[in-house]
Amino acid sequence: MAKRQTRPAGPHILYVCRTCPRYEPPLPAGEVGRGEALANRIKDLAEDWPLAEKIRIRAVNCLGGCLNPCNVSLGAPGKTRVRFSRLGPDDAPAVLEVAGAYFANRDGVLAPEQVPESLRDRLSALSPPQIVRGPMKSVRARSGFVPAQIARIGDS
Ligand code: FES
After folding, report:
1. Ramachandran bin of 86, using left for φ above 0, alpha for ψ from -120 to 50, beta for the remaining angles
2. What is the CA(65)–ligand 1 centre distance, in A?
3. What CATH architecture does domain 12-129 belong to?
4. Lower Cβ count inside 10 Å, N or C end of the chain?
5. 20-55 exposure pattern, b = at least 16 Cβ within 10 A, e = fewer
6. For ligand 1, mutation pick of 62, 67, 83, 86 (most atoms within 8 Å of CB)
7. Atom of ligand 1 nearest to the CA of 61
8. Domain map of the chain by residue range?
9. How much distance in Å is there from the Cα of 4 to the middle of ligand 1?
10. What is the mean pLDDT of the segment spanning 35-58?
11. Inter-residue contact 110 to 98 (CB < 8 Å)
């Protein structure tokens, strides 16, 4: 059996899509979209967050989940990247909670019990790190956590 390769965990980043919802009509001037509102809420909450020094928060323009706004993603070198979709500003506390679980997790493959219940059906993508070889199936098998959307894509 091949020895499992790991890299030391580097900077952890919580990405928040500020552009969502991309496909809804433009807002009146001065109004803030849901993605921007989610990013703002997360940043506000993170001011008193014990992990603020460990996990960077970055507002970005797209996370590839445009059809299911709003989206956040967690990533770190050597870890599986995870994305959650269909979020709103009220989900900010749960997003920070799962970011903490992701930080503490060795490889980023979260078990269901490590994901706040309100987010469990909104995990929309797992992207293996480059060091992980083989099909997506291997990541799913390790996690035991197969969101319906991923199962449909991977099993087709
Ligand atoms: S615009 Fe938000 S994920 Fe693409």
Report:
1. left
2. 5
3. 3-Layer(aba) Sandwich (3.40)
4. N
5. bbeeeeeeeeeeebbbbbbbbbbbeebeebeeeeeb
6. 62
7. 1
8. 12-129
9. 33
10. 97
11. yes
**Higher pLDDT, residue 46 or 132:** 46
Query: pTM of the prediction?
Result: 0.80
For residues 49 and 45, what is the distance between their CA atoms, to the nearest angstrom? 7
For residue 50, the one-letter residue type is P
pLDDT of residue 129: 86
Closest atom, ligand 1, to C-alpha of 22: 1
Q: How far is the CA of 51 from the centre of ligand 1 (A)?
A: 25
Contact 57/103 with Cβ under 8 angstroms?
no
Q: Tell me, what amino acid is at 10?
A: G
**2: CA distance to ligand 1 center in Å?**
37
The CA-based diameter of the chain, rounded to the nearest angstrom, is 59
Residue nearest to atom 2 of ligand 1 (CA): 20
Q: 106-155 pLDDT, tens per residue?
A: 999 999 999 999 999 999 999 988 654 445 555 555 555 544 444 444 44
